[in-house]
Fold this sequence. Notes:
By secondary structure, the chain is mainly α. It has 4 helices and 3 strands; from the N terminus they run βββαααα.
Amino acid sequence: MESATTCWEADEGWELHNDDGFVYKRKKSRGDPLAAEQPATSTDPQAEERNRKERKRRTLLKLKARYQREIDQWELLSNSLRATEEKAGHSQRIQKQQTERDGLAQTAALGASSQYLPEFVDGLLVDELLLQVEAQEAIIGDISNLCDVAEAMCNAQEELLKQSLIDLPIWASPHELIASLCDD
């Protein structure tokens, strides 16, 4: 983006220069001030256009490569997430089928004694719920331990910050404070 520049002559060896509202003094340049501001370029407009197009092409290729790397990373993350979800769903289906087979096998073993069937089904349900509660308890215990560790780290950091503030010379006597300020 080109900026509009204007120059005013001020003193004998200096001139004021306005570069889009940024005004400053600089030494006068010999010859044409506008020619001195513009860099030396080739006089061939076709060569300039080719150079501009080449720079634009290289810039676009760099952007394309950067975006392609980013897209590849997102695809990798997406595929990893999909694979994890499929594994979790597959293991849940297997576990559910296993519990159904176990329940059917035990129900078939009871066979003719229909008077014990409701107690047996309730027992299986209670066992399954008990296992879920124990798993949830273990998860909660792990999270609680993580929270305790995080809290201990925060407390230690807070104590370090407090100690650094307490160790400041400002808390000493006024004479010691003045002496420490004078030493610096």
